[in-house]
Amino acid sequence: WVRPSLVQAVVSTQSTGISFGTTLLSKPMQPMNPIQLQALPKVPSVAQWGFEGATVNDDIIKRTIWEGAIPIEFNLNKDEITTMTPPLPFYALASRNSYITILSNTVKDHFSNAAPAVVDEIWFDYKGIPLKWHYPVGVLYDLLVGGSLLSSGKKTELPWPLTIHFQGFPANAILRCPNEETIRQHYNNVLKEANHIKHGDNNKVNRLSLQDSNDLWDGLRLSEYDRFNNVNRQLQATIENIKFIPLRVCQLNQFNPTILQDLVAPKDDQGKDLTLADVLSQILPDLFQNQNASSSSSSSTTTTTTSTKEKEKEKYSPNTQSPSITSNIITTYIDSSDSTPNRNEPSPNTLSSSSKKITPQVIIQGIQPPLETTIFWLSEFLSPADNFLYIIGNIPQPRQ
């Protein structure tokens, strides 16, 4: 979340000579006046938003989440500066839903007079970690910055300092992104995967008209909520007809986080709405323990959900139309082309038993939701534009 005072401070840098960039709207940024999260509901907890009796309009919540943005400070890699005087930083306000490479050309143009010729492709890093552009900006920030701040108590690192490189493209660590069409194709593929998980097929996506498809992409690219949502609402599912929740659990593991994907139904076999705690207990049973239910209840939830998932397993196998839909898909953040884990890092399943007793902390869209929030509600309101719910998990170490 970007507080108005912070945005005003960034805007004011224009008068100091510091170069300020453009937003994803490709026009000068105007000071934002977002509705503060804590001022939205008049209900006991976030878990009750969207349920009967809540006083918050659903569209207000979705619009407020959509307006989440991260101010970024770009600097040219110091080893690539070709001028006597280092170039000024470049500032931009990036939508949480967008992709970092949508800003590539604009940032490249700013630094081109002080940088060498582009060799291969430009790329970005955060403290030496190449940014995997195929995840939304908000997911990258929460994974690399926000999650690590949960247990440390430090203030959020804003503007987010990123480094742009004109040379040395790490082809073994990140996917190539030669142009905007590559971003659009990737987005479409992820969107189809998410909707195949939700509906059991891609009929809703395939039935979109050419104009709808263009509006969906342009709404994301230009950060226009109404334009995007008018089409995206056609892809939504109700809790009665949804098959599974499209979600990815991003587990922090020092500098080598992992992305886990599993088939999760919104309800158990008894018709009980599954909560965030239930889902984490299912996907990471060795790390996340349901703090809100008894051991027998947690065990029952896991068993019944697994039973439901197994019944549908063949239907959602890798041989179906949608790519990469299998249970327990695990990839490392550092290298998508080589999923071999870093042998110097502890395995996600080898934490001490004492850390199992600590309540997990998670971030979704920069927010720490209560663990009793239902997973369907979170998916409906906090999923970014690609329709996947990204859950950033951090296991705090036990105090000595």
Uncertain stretches: 1-55, 291-309, 313-357, 395-400
What is the succession of H and E elements?
HHEEHEEHEHHHHEEHHEHEHE
Helical segment tally?
Answer: 12
Class based on secondary structure composition and strand pairing: alpha+beta
Radius of gyration: 21 Å
Percentage beta strand: 5-15%
DSSP helix fraction: 25-40%
N-to-C CA distance? 33 Å
Largest sheet, strands/sense/barrel: 5 strands, mixed
Properties at a glance:
10 strands, 400 residues, 12 helices, alpha+beta, 30% helix, disordered C terminus, disordered N terminus
In terms of topology, how is this protein built?
Blueprint: H1 4-11, H2 58-66, E1 69-76, E2 90-95, H3 104-111, E3 123-126, E4 129-130, H4 137-150, E5 160-165, H5 180-199, H6 203-206, H7 210-221, H8 225-232, E6 247-251, E7 258-261, H9 276-283, H10 295-311, E8 329-332, H11 353-356, E9 361-363, H12 375-382, E10 389-394
Parallel strand pairs: 1-5, 6-10
Antiparallel strand pairs: 1-2, 3-4, 3-5, 6-7, 7-8, 9-10
Provide a descriptive summary of the structure in words:
The protein is about 30% helix and about 10% strand. With about 400 residues, the protein is α+β, with helices and mostly antiparallel strands. Helix 7 (about 210-220) packs across helix 8. About 40% of the residues are buried.
